[in-house]
Amino acid sequence: MVFFQRLFRQPQPPNHATPSESLEARLAEYDQAIAHGTDNNDVWFGRGCVQVELKRYQEAIRSFDKALAHRPNHLDSWHNRSLAFCQLGLYEEAVSSYEQALHFSSVPSQDWYFYGTLLAQLDRYEEAIDSYEEALKKDPERALIWYDRGIALSWLGQFEDAIASYDQALNLDATLHQAWFRRGLAFNQCHNYTQALKSFDKALSIDTKGSEVWAAKGLALLQLQQYKDAITAHDQAIKLNAKDDQVWYNQACCHAHCQQLDQAISSLEQAIHLNPDAIRELASTDPDLQVLHQHPTFQKLISM
User: Contact 266/233 with Cβ under 8 angstroms?
Assistant: First the structure.
């Protein structure tokens, strides 16, 4: 929700406004102006913006409705109205609201981008991609649009196209560590673990504190049968987030391949503690853990 909060568009403050003026005082000024007969887009839009800052989103929507009754083509009112719906978790209503704004002849790139983000929230990825591409027609140098386009393509299983989109983003901004991470995930899905590993290493060279990146690196190393390095990567992931059952499970597999049976059992026990049913079902037939089947603790863990 913080992401959407940052996107609200503010009116120009009145000449007499002071930086220290409270939100409640500003709202009272708008209410007083309305009570004295000022009834136009500016006053209702300004009132809605203050209500947003006060997190009174239902009231803000009603104010933006009043603003649009006076000026139906006011893009910022449609924009903020949609964002208020987002803050309430009402994404269908937010999309419907924003569709009204897209009928205007000149829609900025950022609005197409935001509309795509809304559609992605609703898992409408093909439509989201169309919206991102409209945004890119107007602003092809914006790395975040290429990045989010890549995410939508990944959700559709179009991993090679997603990689190409992440590449575009990284050509524009090589410091986007999340784009390196997502690029690595897409390579993992293509079973190109060597390239995945390179992407994860780039992400970690920018930000070492992403537990999900260490976990993904560990999985790629596991697939490449580099088990000792995979154990090291999983250890880093666990230090940052010890509540991911899949990381503990993958760590168990690595220890098993290294014939470190007690460590494998210990990691498997942690995974089962976090997600008992799913991990027991997986472990009972996983060939990576075949070597554990004769361990005295294994059957107890699986059958508990």
Answer: no
* Residue 254: strand, helix, or coil: helix
Domain ranges of the chain: 1-8+21-106, 233-303
**Alpha-carbon distance values, 172 to 106, 116, 175 (Å):** 25, 20, 9
Q: How far apart are CA 303 and CA 297, in angstroms?
A: 10
Asked whether the beta carbons of 146 and 162 are under 8 A apart, the reply is no
Q: What is the pTM of this model?
A: 0.86
Chain centre to alpha carbon of residue 162: 15
CATH class of 233-303: mainly alpha
Left if phi > 0, otherwise alpha if psi is -120 to 50, otherwise beta: which for 37? left
Mean pLDDT, to the nearest integer, of 239-243?
97
Contact by Cβ (8 Å): 235, 212: no
CATH class of the region 1-8+21-106: mainly alpha
For 34-78, write each residue's pLDDT tens digit.
999 999 999 999 999 999 999 999 999 999 999 999 999 888 899
> What does the alpha-carbon distance between residue 296 and residue 43 come to, in Å, rounded to a whole number?
75
